[in-house]
UniProtKB/TrEMBL annotation:
Record-linked Pfam families: DUF1659
Protein's name according to its UniProt entry: DUF1659 domain-containing protein
UniProt superkingdom: Bacteria
Taxonomic path: Bacteria, Bacillati, Bacillota, Bacilli, Bacillales
Organism for this UniProt entry: Bacillus canaveralius
Ranges for domain DUF1659: 5-71
InterPro entries xrefs: DUF1659 (IPR012454)
Length: 72
């Protein structure tokens, strides 16, 4: 049976930075690498809120991206 070994995690903050000429939102992202693998979703969300407080644009989305090595 194959298993996944967590190699790295990234935290991605998506900000809404305005509207384009069609009135659709424009999004900008900021990615933080080397996030602790043990971090819980609540911890990451609280961190994202703290970081977003330092930015001028409103926070739209918080995403976590994990990379796994699949081993047999």
């Amino acid at each position: 049976m194959a298993q996944g070994l967590l190699m790295e995690s990234r935290l991605r903050l998506v900000f809404e930075s305005g509207l384009n000429e069609k009135g659709e939102p424009i999004f900008k992202t900021k990615t933080y690498n080397n996030i602790k693998k043990e971090a819980t979703p609540d911890q990451l969300y609280q961190t994202a809120l703290a970081l977003a407080g330092l930015c001028a644009d409103p926070l739209s989305t918080v995403e976590r991206s994990d990379s796994l090595d699949i081993i047999a």
